[in-house]
Amino acid sequence: MTGKGQRFIATARPSDLPPLEPTTRITRPIIGSAPGPLPFQRIVHALSRRRGLILAMMLLGGGGVAIVGLIMSPAYTATTQIVVDRASEGSSGTSQASQAIDDAAIDTHLAVLSSDAHLRRVASALLLAHEEGVAAGNQPDSWLHRVQDGLGAAWSFITQPFKRSSDSQSPDSNESALAQQLKRSVKIGQERRSRVLSVVATDSDPRRAAEIANTVAHVYIEDTAQRKRTDAEQLVVWLAKRVPEMRLEVARAEEELQAYRLLHGATVDGTPDVTGQQIAQLARQLALAKSDFAATQQRLNRFNDLRQRGAPTAALADALGSASLAEFAHSEATPATVGQEPQPEARREADRVTEQAIDQALSQVETDGRILQAQARSIEERLQSLKAAATETAASMSGLRALERQAAAVAQLYDALLSRQQQANEQVQLIQPDVRVMASAWPPERPSSIHPAFLIPPGVMVFGIMGVLLALGIDRLDHTLRSTDEAAEALGVPCLGQVPQVTLRHAKRIEDLLRQKPQSIYARSIRSLLISVLPRGSGSFASKIILVSSALPGEGKTTVARSLVLSAARLRLRVLLIDLGEPSGLPERDIVTMARAAAPGVDLVDVLSRGRPIAEAVEHLPELGVDYIPPPRLDGNLLHFLANPQVPHWLDQFRETYDFIVIDGPAAVDRLEASFLAGWADQVLLVVRWAQTGREMAQSALRLVGGAPGADADGAPRVASVLTWVDTERDAGFHFKDIRGFKSWRRS
């Protein structure tokens, strides 16, 4: 410090005062829009301010999960394994077909085990076993069962009025409810790709879980065996009726066969085969006869053709195939005497003989043709008669064969029924289902459900995350100012510090707090604020006027103004407090009470209106070392006082007399005429109440009392803000770390 303030502090400062330096370093920000903290820092500050909420949510989550885990009964799981035997008909055929049959059988067993009808039978068996156990006196003796039964009975008694009377009186209601419970607690599955089925039952009682799993398996096996036994018995009854009928059918078929044989003379001597041989032989003879007849006709046709063309006798003989005509033609062609000409009579005789020989040969050939034609016709007639006989024989034999096959089939069916009847009789006595129990369930020793202790960390984490989100949401909706950085960012002017909340329930006046607890957090924060606003110049700027205002009443501006005055008075500075605000709400022995006791009739308006010296309005309080001007009685009209032309004149007089002048102005938003006070002061302190004054309200007040921005003569910011009523226990960003003195003073 320099100038008059430094001279007063250096020469007249009492030795019992604490050091002037605050615990934390106060920097003088530049006038303008102060940059806000990073978003991550805002998140950290918001979470730090509401760490109690987050901790409460975490404790609520952990405690709630722990209570729910303790209330909920542990679950025990028991498993019964069932083996599905391979079906006998599935062993034949290809491997793919056998595998398909096995898969279909396993799927069928799974579907039946999980069906509602089977679960209802299981529920009926369990209820019957429970009734038998109750009748035998086998009640569960563990305290857990007794507690659960008591809770169940109490719940049933409570919910009984809300249930329908038909449900309580119906005998099937308990069975249906238990079946629905089994549908939720019993799981049926296949062990990998094997033929082993697993029945998994879950219940709060290990013995009951094992009982349920075993009952599901045994009831199914018994149902399967009973179904097979019933089918076998029905088959035995049917066979007992069918076998005598088949015996009669076999006898009737044998009688029909013998009667047919006797009636048709059909024997098994091969007669159809002899007839067939005869028919084949005649067919061959007929073919030969027809072939010879066709050859004869061909020779005749050729002969006629050659004869018309005048062929020689040798050619005709060759055409007819006559040996005698061929010899005659040879002898005729041999000359009788060489050199002799035959006589005409001899030649005519020879021609006549030749014609006779030719006609004779032709007649012989024609006769042979007619004979062959007659033979073919006779053979055809015999063949037709044999075919007719063969047809009749074949018809009789076909009927015989049909009767024989029918009799054989009836006999074979009769033999099969006799064999099946014997097997069915044996099967009824030795029935075996295609499923069997491989391993029965035993009561498990350890629960299958997770331990409640392992649910606490996830519950704490989930509720902690919910608490973080809730804290961020509340902070997002909170438009109040809670830190110097937020105040500087929202208002665009520097924030000089934070003043903790103080109540004087145990102190007579604020002077006692500043004097008796100099190291308290409140005293140290006031001293830090005082250092930021004390005059640092010399000459005409040695004194300084500070205007302390706020947006609304009750935000702590009067307490800050009077604390600054009292702290400055302890530095042996000449200080003046001009009270233009509302009542402070301080205890009775405050500055106002003392001033009225010293001069009860003094009023600032009366002094100015009568033209008397301004010094008459000042009350000296030697006990506090403070000069004080009490609030004028204006009857609510402050504007006439502020517009008085003598105000600048007596302010100059005050600058010459005092080193430090504090004006406790009215609330800016509540009293709009307070904006005239900004022109009187060298520096304006806008008091903002922590976690209560909204951003918009503070900005409106700043626009009213801010005046022209910039800095005063000694470099201090022209307009600045101060946070008051800061809760040091909730605000993690408070500048002072050692608050034990302030807490101990509050507890005293």
Can you describe what's shown?
- It is a single chain.
- The longest helix has 86 residues, at 344-429.
- Residues 1-37, 164-169, 584-589, 596-600 and 735-748 have low confidence and may be disordered.
- A hairpin with a 5-residue loop joins strand 2 and strand 3.
- The strands form two sheets. The protein has an eight-stranded mixed beta sheet with strand order 5-12-11-6-10-7-9-8, sandwiched between helices. A four-stranded antiparallel beta sheet has the order 2-3-1-4.
- The two termini are 36 Å apart.
- The protein has 748 residues and is an alpha/beta fold.
- It has helices at 3-12, 39-49, 51-71, 95-113, 116-136, 143-159, 165-169, 172-185, 206-264, 271-308, 313-320, 323-333, 344-429, 452-477, 484-491, 510-516, 521-533, 557-570, 591-598, 604-609, 639-642, 647-657, 695-705, 740-747; strands spanning 76-84, 186-190, 196-203, 435-439, 495-500, 544-550, 575-579, 619-621, 626-629, 660-667, 683-689, 719-726.
- It is elongated, with a radius of gyration of 68 Å.
- 28% of the residues are buried.
- Helix 10 (271-308) runs antiparallel to helix 13.
